[in-house]
Amino acid sequence: MKYGLDFGTSNSTISFDDGINITLLPVEKSLNTPEIMPSLLYFEDIEKKWYFGHDAFIEYKENGGDGRFIQSIKKLLADNMYTGTHIGFKFYSLEKLIELYFREIKKRADKIVQKNVKAITIGRPVYFSRNLNDGLAEKRLQTAASRAGFEEIDFVLEPLAATYALKKQIAEPTNVFTIDIGGGTTDVSIVSLMPNGNGSSRILSTHGISVGGIDFTSQIMNNRLLKYFGLGTTYKSIFNQKMPFPKYALRHITDWYNSLKMVHNQQFMSFLKEVKRTTSDPEKIKCLEELVYEKLGLEIFIAIETAKIALSEDMEAYVEYRQNGIDIQELVKRIEFEHYIASYANEISEMMDESLNQGELDYDQMDIVLMVGGSSKIPLLKKIIEDKFPTIPVIQTNIYSSVAYGLSVADHPFQGSTF
To answer: CA nearest 396: which of 382, 384, 383, 409?
Structure first.
């Protein structure tokens, strides 16, 4: 009896193995997709209360952005320079923040299965970060899970878990190329998968890079929406020279999380005060002020995310947001979006090539390609993959839940070349 937890940068899912059946648990009842719980935390200042998942976003909005809203903490796991943050008068370590989230998802899951489940398999990317401390990241997850009430904890690479979910569906040894394009990372595993009862499967290669859906969303802000917040305007310098508003001054609002902290950036706030005094377009600078002071970055990025998702089905979509004097209605075409993310797509393509080279394999040696993760729906990325495997079936089912399901299927943690 155990859980399988896919703790994602943007969303999380959890499965339950009772020894007979594996079930994805509806831990997020307020959404149309109850099995998907946003990886969000919010501390409300007045009542001194924590909220999680979709509730965190709702309460954050209703409180006008007051309190502390926390997202994408998975991206900080490998950063030994980030130890935690003060919330109110109390310091919360990164391990503590993740513990709070794990404790909440365990409480919801335990209520559904009516058991106090002590065993868990947690998914992890191939690399949390190539440039930071990967071992620290897993240790932090281990600590958080232990403090949240789990006693038996192991880890499986996320693409391997997705691959393992196919084990019951194959009748003969099958080479599976799995690519998981998530919110914060893109990971690949290549596995010689054996049917149940036919011996151990062999891991032929694994690879990963820190590129994901958050990066794609940020490119729409960077390329199309900065004009609503001052880009293209002018102001007068202290020497009374007419100056263009510099794009680098808006770099923080291309990342919604950093946009929440801009009000505390004294250098930026001093610059904003200078620009406001002599700007050629006061309305746009007023919009920038509203974004910063009212902490509207998250809501704007949700609007961008909505358009990005629509572009996977439609050739064009609008980014629409109207609040606090900000009036965005920006048409984005799919071909434009594909241009914005082309460099990331090239990184993913090169990483796929490298994963095969590491395993001394060729593309035509694969039998099945499995695509999972929310960003695997993006047509440009699908085309890159299909072009590399022109004669091989590309499977795209359960893109949000296959990792969590596979984590419960896995009988053993990842321990080298077999599983």
So the answer is: 382
Q: Can you give the pLDDT at residue 200?
A: 78
Nearest in space to 345 (alpha carbons), one of 155, 178, 215, 207: 215
| Of residues 180, 154, 176, the one with CA closest to residue 167 | 176
- Say whether 10 sits in a helix, a strand or coil: coil
For the whole model, what pTM was predicted? 0.85
Which two structure tokens, joined as six digits, stand for 95? 């391990």
Tens of pLDDT, residue by residue over 14-28, are 999 998 889 999 999
Superfamily of structural domain 2-165+398-409: ATPase, nucleotide binding domain (3.30.420.40)
Residue type, 6: D
pLDDT recorded at residue 280: 95
Please provide the DSSP assignment of 238-277 as one string: TTS-EEEPPGGGGGGGGSHHHHTTGGG-HHHHHHHHHHHH
Tens-place pLDDT, residues 314-355: 999 999 999 899 999 999 999 999 999 999 999 999 999 999
Report CA 271 to chain centroid distance, whole Å: 32
Closest by CA to 27, choosing from 37, 40, 17, is 37
d(CA 174, CA 160) in angstroms, rounded, equals 14
Residue 133 has what pLDDT?
A: 77
Q: Burial level of 318, CB count in 10 A (0-12/13-18/19+)? A: middle
Higher local confidence (pLDDT), 401 or 148: 148
Average of pLDDT values for 76-82?
84
Tokens of 235: 């102001």
SS (HEC) of 287-334: HHHHHHHCCCHHHHHHHHHHHHHHCCCCCEEEEEEEECCEEEEEEEEH
- Residue 146: how many CB atoms within 10 A of its CB? 16
As given in the structure block, the two tokens for residue 273 are: 């005060």
**Domain positions in the chain:** 2-165+398-409, 214-340
